[in-house]
User: Fold this.
Amino acid sequence: MLLGLIIFLVTVAGWGLFFLKPAWFPLAITAAGVDWDNQFTRTLWITGAIFTAAQLALVWVIVRRRKAVTGPAKPEAGWLEYVWTAATAILFLSLAFTGSRSWASIPVNRPGVEVIEVYAHQFAWHFRYPGPDKRFGKTALELISDSGGNSLGIDPRDSRGKDDFVTATLRVPVGRPVLLVLHSRDVIHDFFVRELRTKQDVVPGMEIPLEITVEKAGQYEIACAELCGLGHSQMRSLLIALPADEYDRWKATSGVN
Ligand SMILES: [Cu+2]
Assistant:
């Protein structure tokens, strides 16, 4: 009986956490993020209902067992096994299908989208903008010099890079897509912004594209979500989403930041 009570209380506590939401996600700031949240909520409602039904059935069985059951055991209902196995399979496949549809809606490498380069290294983030010519200058590993103020290894001989500028916070325009191209110069890092609902590994030797369209102005924390060394917990920056006209003004005046 005590066990039945404990199971019942655990179930009620589960409902409480779901409905009262003492701790929950911050609001999503992209259309894709809202879509994933809806998918998550749908999944939680369905699995929550099944969880509740299963827990209550368990409580019922525990309570009922106290009234001594005697007599010959009933034969098992084989068809029931088929029913719940098939129902579970259909349910999970439909959730996987709707989920994969919403994941597949992420755009990849569309032409004409503004590119911003993201550089991760132990233990900081840098962001490079191409300047008015909209082209990035070359970079080279051997040119990297933290003490010389060139932590990305930008090649000063490449004229395309003359107007590039590098910032310590990531500014993006609201309502306009930008393509982040992620680089790491040392170990694996992970670009994580809770409000984007996105975690993307940043792998040395690779250029990883990540398109985002932020719909809500504000400041959001960028954290590294891959344990990358002793300073990992300090590896943070800010994503600042500005109204598009303000962003354009900022960019126009940001040869030096
Ligand atoms: Cu890290």
Q: What stands out?
A: The first strand starts at residue 114 and ends at 121. The radius of gyration is 26 Å.
